[in-house]
Amino acid sequence: RGEAETHRSLLLSSLLPSAACDKASPTGLKTATTLDLTHKHGPCSPLGPKSQTSPAQILQQDKDRVNWLHSRLTTTIDVERRSGRKKRPRLSDSAVTVPARDGSLVSSGNFIVTVNLGTPPRPLNLIFDTGSDVTWTQCQPCAKFCHKQLDPIFDPAKSATYSNVSCEQAVCQRYGDVPGVSRGCSASTCLYGIQYGDKSFSVGFLAKEKIAIGRDSFDDFYFGCGQNNLGLFGGSAGLLGLGRDEFSFVSQTASKYGKFFSYCLPSTPSNVGKLTFGKGGYSNRVKFTSLLTKPELPSFYFVDVVGVSVGGKKLTIPASIFSSAGTLIDSGTVISRLPPTAYAAIRAEFRKQMSRYKLTEALSLLDTCYDFSNFTTISVPKVSFVFGGGVELAVAPAGVLYGGSKKQICLALAGNGDDGD
Amino acid sequence: VAILGNVQQMTQDVVYDVAGGKLGFGSGGC
User: Fold this and answer.
1) What is the three-class DSSP state of A132?
2) Least confident residue range of A19-23, A273-277, A321-325
3) What is the pLDDT of residue A363?
4) How far is the alpha carbon of A4 from chain B, nearest alpha carbon, in Å?
5) Does position A30 have pLDDT exceeding 60, yes or no?
6) A314/A304 Cα distance (integer angstroms)
7) CB contact under 8 A, A396 and B6
8) ipTM (interface pTM)
């Protein structure tokens, strides 16, 4: 009985990918503003099986994503130091002012939603991302480069409600202030450029268009009409930016939804989740903690992690370990990254409680892996994060372990390089 | 910074009340 309160017994098969899509999930809760949310690489993905990627590749791309997130902080500081005040680089000199860094925005752990753009509406499968602000899609005529995507590439010439933004408009100036965005001008037409590292970017026209989700539509939605798009976008048509900036989808639809949204990510790629805008659509079990901001990283959603428990044991980790660098919540990062002091404590306790199982070699950034070849059912310690106000996130079993086969399933957490990161 | 990734968010209702400055978690959302 004691173990039932601190551990979960689970079928190994529930952790491994399935070839079939279980569409049953939350569709019963669907409302006008709730969208299906699918894993980019699973059998439910509208992008199809061609986009499937191995766990090792996903983890490598996840490293790139985290490097990019960390570089956002150092880039901001660099620019501020050079100019003496906060300043965003122009598109024309972005190569000088934004250091080239490893990393790509779009890792393989991303989720897809479908929106409609233009008049008549064209469906587009976009990556849903709380870690960036700009919504963009590939646009005809793809003047420089468009990657392969599932949907027909959006053609502004076939929409009755599309218009480019001119350089003289104030919105063009302000778009250049979006974190990570550079702006430019070509023949009086406003250009945007979003550069995520040394591999992923989108450059094109800043435009205004009608966008629809479910039965709701919004005129004059500002988005990037990409003419040069390169990166690990895996068949998607672009990105839906759900960050905090004034040009994010969340801010541009604030008049209707009041900057209120929620989501549920499915436990496996074989299930469907949901993304809801506006109040409602979530369970009454939800408990709230404070959403924090960091002035140097204004796009991101920060939370106040104060502790972690493993198998019902609250670990002794000084609160300052979490508070010194802060913690952001991101839909685009796969594996949580913790201060190394905190991760070391979790790993030690997890290994102790999992000592009946055989450790095996590391999987990329995951260093606590087990060979469960001889098991069909295993017992796993419950892992919980505790936030300010006593709110607890009891991680689902699918969020404690990660792997591609029974021979190598790992603790799905990793440490940062330094407690100050 | 530390990052709370999407694997740990799976099956949770994650609720953003940006204007109200609150973030909610609830188990068993999907």
Assistant:
1) coil
2) A19-23
3) 95
4) 17
5) no
6) 17
7) no
8) 0.97
Angle at A284 between CA A299 and CA A7, to 5 degrees: 90
Q: Region A117-144: what's the mean pLDDT?
A: 95
Q: Do B11 and A62 touch (CB under 8 A)?
A: no
Contacts of A39 (CB under 8 A, 6+ apart): A45, A111, A112, A266, A268, A269
Q: Look at residue A119 and tell me whether its pLDDT is greater than 90.
A: yes
Of A325, A327, A392, the CB nearest to B4: A327
CB hemisphere CA count around A109 (13 angstroms):
31
pLDDT for residue A87: 42
Contacts of B27 in chain A (CB under 8 A): 285, 394, 396
- Alpha-carbon span A272 to A45, nearest angstrom: 9
Taking alpha carbons only, the member of A220, A333, A214, A232 closest to residue A278 is: A214
Give yes or no: A78 in active site: no
CA A17 to chain centre: 20
In the annotation, is A216 catalytic? Answer: no
Q: Find the CB nearest B5 among A266, A288, A336.
A: A336
3-state secondary structure string, A288-327? EEEEEEECCEEEEEEECEEEEEECCEECCCCHHHHHCCCE
Of B19, B21, B28, the CB nearest to A285: B28
Q: What is the pLDDT confidence band of residue A24, given thresholds at 50, 70 and 90?
A: low
Nearest to A402 by CA among A312, A350, A335, A345: A335
Residues in CB range of A232: below 8 A, 6 or more apart? A61, A104, A106, A107, A108, A199, A200
pLDDT at A91: 39
β-sheet bridge partners, residue A310: A313, A383
Q: What value does the mean pLDDT of chain A take?
A: 86
Average pLDDT score over residue span A223-232: 91
Catalytic one of A62, A129, A133, A245: A129
Tell me the shortest Cα–Cα distance from B23 to chain A, in angstroms. 5
Dist CA A296 CA A180 (whole Å): 12
Angstrom distance (rounded) from CA A23 to CA A268 = 12
